[in-house]
Amino acid sequence: MSKKKKILAFVFLAAFSAIIIRVFFFQKDGPAAFLTLYGNVDQRQASPTFLLTERVAEILVEEGQRVFRGQPLAKLEINRLNDKIAVSKATVKQAEAALLKLRNGSRPEEIDEAKAVVKSAQANLDFAQKEFDRYSRLWKESPGRGVTQLDVDQKGLNLEVAQSNLEKAQKSLVLMEIGPRQEDIYAAEAVLEERKASLESLGTDLRESTLVSNLNGVISQRFLEPGDIASPQRAVFTILISEPKWVRVYVTEPELSLIKPGLEAEVFCDGCQNQSVKGVVGFIASESEFTPKTVQTESLRTSLVYEVRINVSDINDRLRLGAPVTVRLSLAQGG
Asked: Is 247 within the bounds of a domain?
């Protein structure tokens, strides 16, 4: 027999022996049968960052401190941000006034003023017409004696200007009486909405200038100090997630058929004084893998196993993150 075949045979016998021992163990107890597994408390972490680039004003927590969801962790300087908010509020008021002016339309006094301009333009036109008629008559009666052709041309130009001014004043009066165009109102409304959105965005930045924890955990590392420049690319802390708490264990394929989601479990750890932590099976892997080195049973190191995740309710915080644990599954309830 080749060396490779001998190794494969040894692995098979070791795995088979472990399975026989476990099956015998929980079968002989009848209804009280249970399965013992080994694993570790899952150690997950988060690295919260500020979404703004600004100088750090305060760090509110220390390494090793337990933090809770909604707790402020650090603050940024907000002087420049408050200045931007003040400017944005002013532009919003300006846009509101412009829109209100368009919606209200022309005031009666403005219409009266436009009518007065039309009346004045009409008077100037009448005078220019009389001047042109008089100069034209003098030129015809005595050409070159009283007036010149240049004088007549000048009076004609004055008449055209007066006519143009009257038409312009009349059109202005019509527009004043009609009021602003609906398109102008829509444009003013859009400007106002844009400036309000800009102000709202600055308000969001102001709220995000305080870094708030969105989970329960323990501060593992602290990377920034007051005076440092924070940015979305720089983590402020590393937080070890303590809730929800998971335990990872691994089972062989024959044991896999005995386990299902919702199965109750007891979790024991070194130093827990035989006090267990309750949990339930929450996740069962659908694909096998080689047993991780963190699993404590040496005989299964080379076997293909399936990951099982136990969701635990560790109210008293007995289980330390990353610590090795023993899990006992009650198989009687599984049927």
From this structure: yes
Q: Take residue 124 and report the two structure tokens written for it.
A: 């100037």
Q: Average the pLDDT over 194-214 and give the result.
A: 95
Average pLDDT over residues 195-212: 96
Residue type, 324: P
Tokens 């165009």 belong to which residue?
181
Residue 148 binned pLDDT confidence (cut-offs 50, 70, 90): confident
Mean pLDDT of the chain: 80
The radius of gyration computed from the CA coordinates of the chain, to the nearest angstrom, equals 44
Looking at the fold, whether 191 and 108 belong to one and the same domain comes out as: yes
- Could you give the angle at which helices 149-178 and 108-141 cross, rounded to 10 degrees? 160
Q: Is residue 3 part of a domain?
A: no
Q: Are residues 87 and 59 in the same domain?
A: no
pLDDT mean over 19-35: 49
Q: What's the Cα-to-Cα distance from 157 to each of 130, 249, 272, rounded to whole Å? A: 13, 102, 108
DSSP assignment of 108-162 equals HHHHHHHHHHHHHHHHHHHHHHHHHHHHHHHHHHSTTTS--HHHHHHHHHHHHHH
Total count of domains within the chain: 3
Model pLDDT, residue 31: 44
Domain extent for 216: 48-77+209-234
196 and 98 together in one domain: yes
Secondary structure (3-state) at 211? strand
Q: Residue 326: what pLDDT?
A: 84
